[in-house]
Amino acid sequence: MSVPVAARWVGEATGHLDILDQTKLPARLEWLECRDVATVVEAINSLRVRGAPAIGIAGAYGLVIAAGEALRGQFSPDKARAHVLARGEDLASARPTAVNLRWAVERALAKLSLVAADTPAADLAALLLAEARAIHEEDQRLCAAIGRHGAAILPAGNILTHCNTGALATGGIGTALGVITTAWDAGSRFEVFADETRPLFQGARLTAWELVERGIPVTVLCDAAAGHLLATGRIAACIVGADRITANGDTANKIGTYSLAVLAAAHGVPFYVAAPSSTFDLSLASGADIPIEQRGAAEVLAPLGVPAAPAGAKAFNPAFDVTPARLIRAIITEHGAIDPVTPARIAAVLARH
Ligand code: MRU
Q1: Which CATH class is domain 149-351?
Q2: Crossing angle for the helix pair 121-153 and 77-92, to the nearest 10 degrees
């Protein structure tokens, strides 16, 4: 079986968005039919759809649904536009750390400024659908390019990854996991080690599932076992994705990424980040400026719904951490690898296109 897409638009501008409910994976493959913006916002916030590029794509399609709501409500052009803008803010702020979400919503909304103020809701919906589709298809191409560039520089040997950065997290083959699958498809042979990625187990539930579906050998480990694994010398490289990369190369990614980067440095194992240009936020000077999402206590105290701590215990549950640029060997983008990771190199590679 191949890995399904994270989200798909069904029909024309008055259609709906199907989201593959990732909270149910790998046990069940269920699609969530989104016909109103509130359902899309909830799906993003509760990680039914997740991964930086994928939530951007879902957010862009969410705007088409907002225009559809205005159409069904027979809103005047003024009111329809105001409705889309307001729902756009709900979508863009559904999760704070991955910049791709706001980037995609704002990119699609920018199209509205190109048409007359009296454009009816039906035409707004068509315009927004065209842009959402463009963002979706573009991400597919970017992932393929990241895969090619990354596979060309990935050292031979086993790979350790964290969280899920594959087809489920993007509009294409993925970023870090796309590099891994591209290298495998090109004939490289290795074992993938996947951190389980507590507290939501994206590594165990999603990355391992994607790799098993593709027939690539995968071994799941507790996040806490990464140091021991690296000390055994069995890992040639670590590769992860990103939710936001600042002008100096500091990278926000799933909680536990920073610990992994420190461990990789301690054992002399190269640590790579793979991400499209839409993940860069050059308006921020360093990782200290990145908003870090804090999530509910239940995710930590009752993992997968099973109580694991006594009533009365509190939880510390940041969803992301920041890896300083100095720990990153290279950032692999659709334009090639940024190596070394310096502000000048980042600006040069991103400006090239
Ligand atoms: O909370 P999640 O599951 O959305 O976090 C996802 C990650 O941290 C990924 O590594 C990142 O978004 C890159 S996905 C290509």
Answers
A1: alpha beta
A2: 30
Q: Tell me which residue of 252, 257, 271, 287 sits closest to 331, measured CA to CA.
A: 271
**Segments making up each domain of the chain, as ranges:** 7-141, 149-351
Angle at 142 between CA 213 and CA 148, to 5 degrees: 70
Q: What is the pLDDT of residues 213-271, one digit of tens each?
A: 999 999 999 999 999 999 999 999 999 999 999 999 999 999 999 999 999 999 999 99
- Pocket-forming residues, ligand 1, beta carbon under 6 Å: 47, 50-53, 98, 163, 165, 169-170, 174-175, 202, 240-243, 253-254, 319
Query: Of 243, 250, 281, 321, which is the active-site residue?
Result: 243
CATH architecture of 7-141: Up-down Bundle (1.20)
Q: How far apart are the first and last CA of the chain?
A: 36
CA dihedral 141, 219, 279, 11 (to 10 degrees): 50
The pTM for the full model equals 0.98
* Closest C-alpha among 173, 165, 172 to residue 140: 172
